[in-house]
Amino acid sequence: MSTPVVLIGGLHGPARTEVVDQLLREHPGALAVHHDLTAITRGRIERVVRDDRRVLDITEVRLAHSCLTCTVREDLLPWLVHHAGRAPLLVVDLWDSVEPRSVAEALDCDEARDLLRLTAVLTAMDAEHLPVDIVRGDDLAESGHQAAAGDRRYLAEVLARQLEYATALVLRGGDAEDHDLTRAILDHLAPCTPVFAETLPEVSGPPLCTRELAERVDPPTARLPCDAQTGEIMTVVWKRLRPMHPGRFFAAVDELATGSVRSRGQFWLATQPDRILAWDAVAGVVSVEDCGPWLISLPEAAWELMSPARCVTASLDWNPILGDRVQHLVFMGPDLDRQRLLDLLDSCLLTPDEAETPLEDPFVPLITLKESA
């Protein structure tokens, strides 16, 4: 019988610790492992192992390359495999800025498949701090949360991904008002993810499928929120069936990125009609990523190689002429000017008169290629 493994992520260390403590109490004999990356920029990592009563071991880990990937591959995974069958539950207490997806997918390997089963990915958060942190423009180095030397990610960017990938969210800290505000925010950031306050979800069940977890957040198959409003917090959805004018859309990027707390989705440019481009912005930081071809751009024989989720998602927006090409962007934040936002996006669409006009594409040098579309 494989040993269940649960990942506990989140930027708020005290909240994570509370959740880990509760899991250890509720599962006698369980072990928790945490890699302290405080000194990773100096090449030093500490592995801390504990149970519900005490710290059992602190080991300094020396790696050839001081990075998260090396830590998981060379230390965490072997440790988990070694302890499989020796505890009823293994709890991985992730470092502050670690995005759980990378760890979850690393555990989905031949070495661990018959010994370990990933059963839950929880993100713990402090209800008092989340509403502030999700709009912070600090980078991880400035805030002391970097997971490697040269880590250039932003605090709010990491927090958003921790929230959106999790199978369940756990609230700690704050008062009743903080909890109400945080729940309202989560209703828009991760509307399909269950939220727990006093209790915890079941973590000893069947294994999760990491491919399905990825499909929940990857742009071609992502489960994006719908139009909604909770008090002052709004989600605005924009869907259209005309290509973007690259110049006008590029000129609107700053306003679109800074006008909301979080925005994401997929779009297509008139100059790149065969490519799915992903839009991802949080706290004013925006990235544009090439996620591969639209289904309509591939030979029909290649469709059979696509995942069922990809084919189903494409069918939902299928157009006899355009196929699965669609503009689908979602914006979340307080007091959004819905009509202003929609008008701005509509103004970026290509007009019929421009269809045959050669266009320059300022996005080309900014787009990164995502290998796994």
Quick overview of this protein structure:
This protein is α/β, with parallel strands linked by helices and 373 residues long. It has helices at residues 13-26, 68-83, 100-107, 130-133, 140-143, 155-165, 176-189, 210-215, 246-258, 300-303, 308-316, 338-347, and strands at 3-9, 31-36, 45-50, 55-61, 90-93, 116-126, 168-172, 195-196, 228-230, 233-240, 262-269, 272-282, 285-293, 327-334, 368-369.
What does this structure look like?
There is one protein chain. The protein is 30% helix and 26% strand. It is an alpha/beta fold and 373 residues long. The protein has 2 domains: 213 residues, 3-Layer(aba) Sandwich (Rossmann fold); 142 residues, Hypothetical Protein Yjia, Chain: A,domain 2, CATH 3.30.1220.10. It has an 8-stranded mixed β-sheet, sandwiched between helices. Helix 7 links the parallel strand 7 and strand 8. The longest helix is centred in the first third of the chain and has 16 residues. The mean pLDDT is 91.
- Cα(first) to Cα(last) distance is 34 Å
Low-confidence stretches: none
Q: Element order, helices and strands? A: EHEEEHEHEHHHEHEHEEHEEEHHEHE
Q: Give the C-level CATH assignment of the largest domain.
A: Alpha Beta
**Strand percentage, roughly?**
25-35%
* Largest sheet report: 8 strands, mixed
Report the total helices.
12
